[in-house]
Amino acid sequence: MTMKQLDSVTTTFQKATSLSTSTERTDSGAGTALTTAQQKRSVEKLLEINNPTEVDNKLVTSLESITGYKVIELTNTRYGSHGAEFYTRGFDITVNTIDDAYKAIRAVECSLATMSPDTIKDQLALLATLVVKPSGETPEDHELRINSLAYQLMEYPADIVVFAIKKVSETCRFWPSYAEFHQHIEWRVKKRKMLLNTLTKKLVDLTA
Q1: 70-75 — which CB contacts under 8 Å span 24+ positions?
Q2: Strand partners, 92
Q3: Tens of pLDDT along 160-170?
Q4: Distances (CA, A) of 15 to 64, 118, 205
Q5: Which pTM does this prediction carry?
Q6: Which of 9, 82, 102, 115 is least crowded, fewest Cβ atoms below 10 Å from its Cβ?
Q7: SS3 labels along the chain
Q8: Would you list the domain boundaries of the chain?
Q9: CA distance 60 to 48
């Protein structure tokens, strides 16, 4: 089914969704995985922006343009030793049509585009030159460590992975564990997954 064209495609993720003139649909109600071209273009845009916070802001703007409604972030307040902390518990998104739901889902999927393992390995190899490697580590050990980390990181959005590697390079003197990368990743990717879950539920409601 061919999607209707937006009057003005002005944001990063709307451009990403326009790489294909149509989106195939599955029985589960979700769109198909990104095509190779969409995946490549999405990763390029994520790395071009090179700032997860800016990516999130552009994504929300894109969703608001697609749906015609403001995306409302639902937050809770948690009080701790450092005072009040605000955290996202979900999103309220209004979607009126199935086509808009698919477009919005595709925009979020583009923001979740991942890098290839080889590209991540290149990033980690550069990191290895900036930190102290484990004493007595053989080239085989080093390769195994790089491969293992790349395998773990390949499931996360490209911009967030690059951001995490940069943060680790700035804060770790010694070769880091996976946990030291993950602490810079989990809370950032959670918001995008919340958006995707909310939109998927909206789509299910519209197609019921």
Answers
A1: 71/195
A2: 72
A3: 999 999 999 99
A4: 15, 26, 27
A5: 0.81
A6: 82
A7: CECCCCCCCCCHHHHHHCCCCECCECCCCCECCCCHHHHHHHHHHHHHHCCHHHHHHHHHHHHHHHHCCCCEEEEEEEEECCEEEEEEEEEECCCCCHHHHHHHHHHHHHHCCECCHHHHHHHHHHHHCCCECCCCCCHHHHHHHHHHHHHHHCCCEHHHHHHHHHHHHHHCCECCCHHHHHCCCHHHHHHHHHHHHHHHHHHHHHHC
A8: 12-113+189-207, 117-182
A9: 18
Residues 6+ apart with CB under 8 A from 96: 67, 68
Which amino acid makes up residue 85?
A: E
Tell me the two tokens of residue 108. 């979020």
Instruction: Please tell me the distance from the alpha carbon of residue 36 to that of residue 116, in angstroms, as a whole number.
Output: 12
The C-alpha torsion from 37 through 71 and 2 to 203, rounded to 10°, is 100
User: Which residues lie across from 78 on neighbouring strands?
Assistant: 85
Contact yes or no for 35/19 (Cβ under 8 A) = yes
Q: What confidence score (pLDDT) does residue 12 get?
A: 47
**102 pLDDT band (50/70/90 cuts)?**
very high
Token pair of 110, please?
Answer: 């583009």
